[in-house]
Amino acid sequence: MEALISGKKVLLMQCLLFASQVFGVAISPPSDNLQLANKPQQFRNLSDVENPRFRYTINFYRSIQLPIIDVLMNGLDALSVFASKNYTERSSNMHFHSSDYPAVTIDVEPTAPAEDYSNEIAVLCLYHLMADSVTRRFFKQAQVSCVWDNVEVATIWVKKYTPNVPSVPSTVATANPVSAAVQPRFSYLVDAEGNAIIVVFVTVMDAMKWFAKYSDTAIVPRCYTSPGPGWNSGIFFPGTQAPRTEPPYLEYRWVIESLKRVPAFMLQNGRSAELTIDFRVDDTALGSALLSRKTPVQAAAVRFDPNVATA
User: Residue 138 contacts by C-beta under 8 Å, 6 or more apart in sequence?
Assistant: First the structure.
């Protein structure tokens, strides 16, 4: 009978099992500090303390339950859009609604009298909303107050999609213009450890949160990102041993778009486990990364050939 269960249902069951086994017991809140190897000079620390001027408050509406994957997929879409923008520039009303996961909508709006908000605030609020939803096991309609210098400047709404209901005029998020050129390949490790899909979502979004700080055309260094020790998950970027001498290079914009596709790949395959990511643009190999439960030192010791990765 298990063979008849779809990939999505298998992973949803995994989500619930993970939540009951791990989040059902007392654990320390996940930290945003990256876990670096014993030799810090081998890695670049991308985890500067979040801007102390920022804070947030989340109000969950307990009576309105939302589908877990629809919440996370729409949140991932929204975060990837803001992470690809200039971090210091500003945005106004933005609307996100995935046709593949249509049960949920996400709106990011300025709070009056503000007319816009910084992309930095949107990135930080969206990340913490998604991470908190996972840790609290609250996948419900929510309102997030995004505060800067003790002033609420933006609001994020996560709602159940209701057709034909008027909303605040918003810019509907469109596909990232780099999407067509990006052609990542993914391959599960031979001895891959399983990891709950909800943890994979947070791991990917954590990397996007840190990468959003940098110019989209800057080159990704050798580094390791992780939501923190409570998650037992991270992404190791080994850097390029033979740097390319001409474009395209392993730039943040290509990496963000590629990371966005990891959860969808796992959902389509009905398997959430450690894998390698081969970053490719216009069929040119740029570099690779390893998403795993390993520590930075263990991840750095893994030898994998990105050329054998399969889509």
Answer: 60, 62, 132
Q: What is the largest CA-CA distance in the chain?
A: 56
Are the C-beta atoms of residues 129 and 75 closer than 8 Å to each other? yes
Residues 6+ apart with CB under 8 A from 237: 220, 221, 222, 223, 224, 225, 255, 287, 289
Dist. CA 76–CA 156, nearest whole Å:
14
pLDDT digits (tens, 9 = 90+) for 157-184: 999 998 866 555 555 655 556 677 899 9
With CA atoms as reference, report the closest residue to 262 among 180, 195, 172.
195
| Gyration radius (Cα) of the chain, Å | 19
Residue 144 CA to chain centroid, in angstroms?
Answer: 18
With a cut of 70, list the residues of the chain below it in pLDDT. Answer: 1-50, 164-178, 240-243, 304-311
- The sign one gets for the Cα dihedral 180, 119, 101, 289 is positive
C-alpha to C-alpha distance for 212 and 220, rounded to whole angstroms: 12
Rounded to the nearest angstrom, the gap between the alpha carbon of residue 234 and the centroid of all alpha carbons in its chain is 11
Which tokens sit at 98?
Answer: 């995935």
Check residue 246 and report its DSSP letter.
S
DSSP class of residue 105 equals: E
> Can you spell out the DSSP letters for 57-100?
EEEEEEEEE--HHHHHHHHHHHHHHHHTS-TTSEE--EEE--SS
Note the pLDDT of residue 271: 97
Contacts of 75 (CB under 8 A, 6+ apart): 106, 126, 129, 130, 133, 158, 201, 205
Distance separating alpha carbons of residues 127 and 153, to the nearest angstrom: 17
DSSP annotation of 20: I
pTM of the full predicted structure?
A: 0.81
Please report which helix (H) or strand (E) contains residue 232, including its range.
none
